[in-house]
Amino acid sequence: MTSFSDLGLSEEILRTLTELGYEEPTAIQEQAIPELVAGHDVIGQAQTGTGKTAAFGLPLLDYLDPASGETQALVLTPTRELCIQVTQALRAYAEHLPIEVIAVFGGQAVATQQSRLRQDSHVVVATVGRTLDLVNRGSLDLTSARYVVLDEADEMLDLGFIDDVERILRLSPSGRQTSLFSATIPPPIERLADRYMYDPVTIRVTPKQLTVDAIEQAFVEVPARQKVDRLIDVLRAEEPEQAIIFCRTKAGTAKLDETLRARGLGVKALHGDMSQGQRDGVMLSFKDHRLRLLVATDVAARGLDIEHVTHVINYDVPDVTDTYVHRIGRTGRVGRTGRAITFVTPAQRPEIDRIQREAKTSIGEWEPPEERLEHAPRPRHREHPSPVETGGPVKTDGREAGGDSGEVEQVPAVAKLFMNRGQRSGIDEDDVRWALIEGAVVPEDAIGSIRVLERFSFVELDSAHAEQAVERLEGTKLKGKQIRVEYARG
Ligand code: AMP
């Protein structure tokens, strides 16, 4: 995993990031920062929430010359709100650098901004109209603006500023580094990039990448012939409140819909070959929860609010990771029930690895819910080997188990607790044990197995202390992360 210190940033910036609590770079930061540090022009297709401000801001702040008070960087924003927001962010990132960040936007007295610009103004964050206004008044000089950032360029286009943006670009030095961030890249933005950027590197991220981790993901490997049967098994076992089953093609969607209906499942299809009226009817019944299972193509499902959908089934594995992220990223926002299950044939198995790698997530092999419950808390702790591993009786709380007296062993009742943090949060068994002993004041010998998984953990402990552990740990922090502790299901 890439860390901020791998990206070529200065010690001052790294210190600030630690202080801000940024632990690791977001996708756009990981990809854009090295390019910008290397001096390349960058087009970042990224929305608010992806961390784009730091992606362009950190390299820029690091490469300015504090000794010169000239405006060396210009960040153009479509609105005053964004202008203020970006200014605040850049000032925070420049905490340990002698860099002045000035905001310039319409609606505030020009004179105030003019006098501010007479002092050091290494970075000017500005709305488009006010920039030209101040340039025309001779208060803002762009001839030293080596770094120009167009933030939310598609918004500037929508607001009719594109010609003014071009004018501003022509006023800045031709050898500048230009970066452009935009949620979408419509043709006029593409033309602008062609004309005013030098050999730009394009980076695309979706904010969904930040959210798929909250979803339980699994895959089912099955030969193509048995796919329908396995799908039916999975649906029976999962009992989804509502599921969308994604297929790659319209024909595939229609066929699966037909097959599932013939097998007695209450399902409907949504695809582009249906009339608008038919589609509206299906959408409505799905939205009203009258329909539980929907088979759809990506395009057809676009208009659906799937936040309440409990299951996303990728009947056909998406060939683009973005599609995977987009399909599953919208589910399970309400409650904790979001599950995504992806079907692959043995030949498609490497696709799962690709998705795991590209979406930085983990996808395990699917298990029916009962087995999941059974497996998850099963003791694997080294200090508590199972009878199978030792080939003999094990000690449980100081008493011999499995003796030949014929009596039923009185093992104290054990409670299983779930904690919403795991290896990903840098937590290991000792941390969990420490939290139980120090945080919840549970006696050490009341703690049984602790199993730390990728994203959550399970603890077995003497049930006499379980309530106390839940009460005292719930909502507290472990290694800086807020934890949630509750009784494990089952
Ligand atoms: P932005 O997309 O630039 O508006 O950033 C969205 C939010 O994410 C802001 O509140 C940032 O402070 C925060 N943020 C940006 N990068 C990171 C990071 N690497 N780790 C944690 N938070 C971040």
Describe, in plain words, how this protein is organized in 3D.
By secondary structure, the protein is of the alpha/beta class. The protein has three domains: 4-205, Rossmann fold (3-Layer(aba) Sandwich); 215-369, P-loop containing nucleotide triphosphate hydrolases (Rossmann fold, 3-Layer(aba) Sandwich), CATH 3.40.50; 394-487, RRM (RNA recognition motif) domain (Alpha-Beta Plaits). It is built from 19 helices and 22 strands. The strands form five sheets. It has a seven-stranded parallel sheet, with helices on both faces. Strands 10-11-9-12-13-8-14 form a seven-stranded parallel sheet, with helices on both faces. Strand 3, helix 5 (110-118) and strand 4 (123-127) form a beta-alpha-beta unit. Helix 3 crosses helix 4 and helix 6 (128-136) crosses helix 8. 39% of the residues are buried. It binds adenosine monophosphate.
